[in-house]
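Dear colleague,

As promised, here are the two records you asked about, laid out in our usual form so they can be pasted straight into your sheet.

NAME FIELD: protein one
SEQUENCE, THEN STRUCTURE:
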Amino acid sequence: MRKLDLHGIRHEMVRYKVIRFIEDNWDIKEEIEIMTGNSKKMQEIVEKVLREYKLEYKVGDFLGFNKSFIRVVLG
């Protein structure tokens, strides 16, 4: 699974990084993971981009304990 780690990235650069990551991996037809840490603002920025691309995604793990990443279905 391909991953984008946003730790240490300034909020104003998050949108650009996520768009670039999605477009670079658009044709892989598998899940990708975007690590946001526990920053609510960063998660909101990422989720907004994912909604714009109309992508299916889930915040955190299946049990709901770890919400520091977003798993996205491409294809």
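NAME FIELD: protein two
SEQUENCE, THEN STRUCTURE:
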Amino acid sequence: MKPILVYIPTPDEHDAEMIGAALIKKKLAFCTNIIPGMHSQYIWKGKFQHEKEVILIAKTFDTKYNELAKTVKKLHCYELPCIAAIPITKINEEYKQWAKKQCT
């Protein structure tokens, strides 16, 4: 079990809180962080988009990623949400042990 961060942009704090709470209640994440105030630019269906978003970061383990991604897809309002895993290369052992207990 390797710890990872999962980066999930959402349209607003309500959606970020709803998805984050579901992930924790299902033991698919041991902690979530909600970061408001992001501005995103991208092309979607041939049109330039500039949107305000809220970032949800789910702290979890690589073994939980597939089920976490399925849950996010079910709950997320975006047609194609970003659900990007970022490996954690170092973490203090006490915190990691606490985290494992939260996800089992």
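A couple of things worth noting about protein two: The mean pLDDT is 97. The two ends are 12 Å apart (CA to CA).

Best,
R.
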